[in-house]
Structure formats: structure tokens, C-alpha cells
Amino acid sequence: MRLTGFLILAAAAVVMSVATPGAHAAPLSDQPGTAMAGDGDVMFLRKAAMAGTLEIDASNLAQSRASSPAVKSFATQMIQDHRAAEAKLKQQAQRLRVQLPATPLQKDQQALARLGQMKGAEFDRAYAQQIGVDAHQDAVALFRKAADDAKDDGVKSFARQTLPTLEHHLEMAQKMASQVKP
């Protein structure tokens, strides 16, 4: 019941942010080289927060559910790197007065629940594909778009600085996925 109420409130917040363009964008300063965050920047920050939370939560699951040393090692690296990125993301959000979601998308929460029912080699394969490869392909696309299109200089810089790490994660994930294939 609480989750339903939370989802209704979250949906209402999204509707309100779409209904009032720029409601979450704050002017930065009068200094040259700064910009105003646009609605696309706000959506990027929110999507990045949800994606990062998914990867951290799934990687925490991997610590106890995975059987492959490669998967466990990858998960440890994901927790470390995504927590560091999360701290920088929160700085951008605070600067722009953007409230970030604390949980992944509902479809990702469901995927986490399914992962939580698995263990061993089954978990390894699902985690490697869904969190390792698929989630990182999505993250690379999200960050690449923000690196090119963000209106706010800080958001653009954050996306550009984080993108190479995500691309490296994707390469690592593809290698890991090939190692845990049946």
C-alpha cells in the first residue's frame, strides 16, 4: 500500500514537472560560461540517479548471490564506481535544486526482485546480461546524449567526465557476460 502511494506521488511529481516547464531549473549565476538547466537536464539527472541506484542495488545482491569470481569482482567495482558517480550527481542536483528519486524505476525494481530469487550460475548470467551489459548500454546512451545536449555546463561536464567510466564498465560487462555463458 505504501509503495502504491509512493508511486502515485512520484507520478504526480513527474506530471507537475512536465506541466510547469522549467519548474526545477534554477539560474546559476551571471558569470559567463554558465547556463540555465533545462528540462532535459533535470530529466537526465533523475534518470541517471535511478540507473545508478539500480546498479548499486543489483551489485549488492551479487555480493551474496553470485558464484562467479568475475561477477563478484565486477559487482564490487560497480558499487565503488557508481557510489562515486552518485556523489557527483547529487552535487549537481543540489546545485540546481533538483530532487532525485531514491529508487529505481518500477520495472527495474521488478527486475531486482527477480534477480533476488536467483543464485549461482543462473544469477551470474542474468546479472551479467541485465545489469552488466543492458543497463550499461542504456547508461552510455543516456550520458552520451547529456554530454552532447545538456544546457547546464556543470551537467554537461559531469556527463562528459562520467561517460568514459561507463564505457569501460560496458566493455568489462561484455567480457564478463561471455565468461558466464552456459
From TrEMBL:
<keyword id="KW-0732">Signal</keyword>
<feature type="signal peptide">
    <location>
        <begin position="1"/>
        <end position="25"/>
    </location>
</feature>
<protein>
    <submittedName>
        <fullName>DUF305 domain-containing protein</fullName>
    </submittedName>
</protein>
<dbReference type="Pfam" id="PF13628">
    <property type="entry name" value="DUF4142"/>
</dbReference>
<dbReference type="InterPro" id="IPR025419">
    <property type="entry name" value="DUF4142"/>
</dbReference>
<feature type="domain" description="DUF4142">
    <location>
        <begin position="41"/>
        <end position="176"/>
    </location>
</feature>
<dbReference type="InterPro" id="IPR012347">
    <property type="entry name" value="Ferritin-like"/>
</dbReference>
